[in-house]
Amino acid sequence: xxxxxxxxxxxxxxxxxxxxxxxxxxxxxxxxxxxxxxxxxxxxxxxxxxxxxxxxxxxxxxxxxxxxxxxxxxxxxxxxxxxxxxxxxxxxxxxxxxxxxxxxxxxxxxxxxxxxxxxxxxxxxxxxxxxxxxxxxxxxxxxxxxxxxxxxxxxxxxxxxxxxxxxxxxxxxxxxxxxxxxxxxxxxxxxxx
Length: 193
Fold this sequence. Notes:
Layout: E1 21-30, E2 35-43, E3 48-56, H1 58-71, E4 78-83, H2 86-101, H3 115-130, E5 137-140, H4 148-165, E6 170-173
Parallel strand pairs: 1-4, 4-5
Antiparallel strand pairs: 1-2, 2-3, 3-6
Helix pairs in contact: 1-3, 2-3
């Protein structure tokens, strides 16, 4: 994948060996807005991935979390993505195709923000459809309200944005055994207020 966050892909994908159904939560974080940005997804089995960009926005982090949750689970038949970002959900479900039809303009005629990410989201969605997989199920969850997977995704995204604040663009993942899985039986311990 080219563009934002492209130079840091891990290259592992979860295989559909365990189940045809999988739930993953996503989140984005930004220190300032714009500023150092992080994105993350965390799966129901504790698998996770996160990445950092030295400069971005919270919306970029949210969209990248969604993008990599889908692309890293391309073989999962019934993929449910839980997000606390209505922006990311609405973009995927309602807006991105309209932006493309209008030549990457918003309904008011302004240039579409984050076009490179939206093009990749369309590509991963269309790749699922081409393989006769059902569309991803998107569920809105309330952030910072005790939803365990969302709390873990937030923890990973915030941690990634801290790396971004140090000028690091990178990505990390438990896929492929590079980093350990998380214990998602309980929310992470809070280290920030």
